[in-house]
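Collaborator request log, item 7. Partner lab (contact: R.S.) asked for a structural prediction of Peptidase M50 domain-containing protein to inform their binding assays.
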Amino acid sequence: DARDKQGFQRLEELAQKTIEDEAALRLIAVPILGRRLGVDSTAVLPPASQVRDILGSDKFSTSEVVEFQRVYVLRGSVVKGVLPGDALEDMRARLADRGYGESTELFLQRSREEGQSVLFLMLKEDLPQNEFAWWQWVLCVALLLASLASVNITTFSVVAMSQMNATSMDINEVTKIALKTVPTAVAIFATVAAQEAARRAAASKYGVELTPPFFIPVWPFPSVGCFGAITRRLGTVPNEEASMAMSVASGLAGYAVSFAVLFYGLSLGPDPDKIVNLNFQLLPLLLKLVLKPVLGQSSVSDQPDPFADPISIAFPSNPYTIGGIIGLIVVSLNLLPIGRLDGGVLAKSILGGRNGGFLGFGALFLLLLGSLAPNDAGLIYITFGFFAIIFQSGGESPPRDSVTEVDGTLKTLASLLLILGTVLSLPGALLPNL
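Returned to partner:
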């Protein structure tokens, strides 16, 4: 098409002068620079002049239309006194009344120019297609079963025994020790399940369809049992509030369950069988500082320097306390502002795509710092960093309305979750002698 011969140059100009969000730029880049392979279509947009007539000027004042074959970019601003969300819904209704509701989609996005906004009119078939195939169901079930097994294998629970005790143990004693992992496993899985249930409740409120959760077992390098779950959106999110609400709900639910389990475990005191011990040196920095005074006398310690205080290696504990601690760590790591993690979604919603991305580099540095810790403590950060970069990098498609401001209460909760998640993820290796 003659209009798209210089599509790349004009898209680059829009990126420099008009479109603020990288996710919005990616959304229109696919149909502008080339259709998806293997997709044939005869669908076309209505003429730009007709689109301007349909949308009118009482809700959105259009100053310029940048035409591509399969995308129209309308520069302008929402009319003063009209709420952006109301303006968008009114214009979508007008398109539907003229018979274009089934074939097109309208997006309202932020502009680099202060006081200005941008409308995208696209063909729905050019939007990301997120159908859920049969093999993905198989993968979901396989990962669920693997996670149910992996949550029983963590490095936070240790059993102190001599070589003599180890060789003289019978099958009943081995079974007794193995069963001690069950409450911890239940606590970890309950935390992750609560996060996903809360995410789906929030998604339902805003009419967002999600994929089933892909639980992520931590294997073959055991640490926290499960890194949470990957959930993708199957449709367009209506606004930034919906994006933020899903991640806030997930974080709050995860913390609620893990803190409840932790407090319950602390109220029980150490395991009466004296089997379960907490591997203290794996704890993040803040949990080390807060929990050490309430854990009592250490069960295993080391004193490499005879002139320094001994280092606490392990404390008597119980499976519930350990399960609550691991739950806190899993939730906190997922609240780091990286990619598609809950923290990444919150950071980009609060600060914008560019500033949220810069914050993500800081979070990656934190993971790199944690990975320098010796033994299993560093392994937690290495494996989670691998998971975040490989499976949760990039960003979600932009919401239909990214201009409407998010409710202040929700934004405050999101900010607090980001801060808490980051603070609770600070590696304990920063104070190795604690």
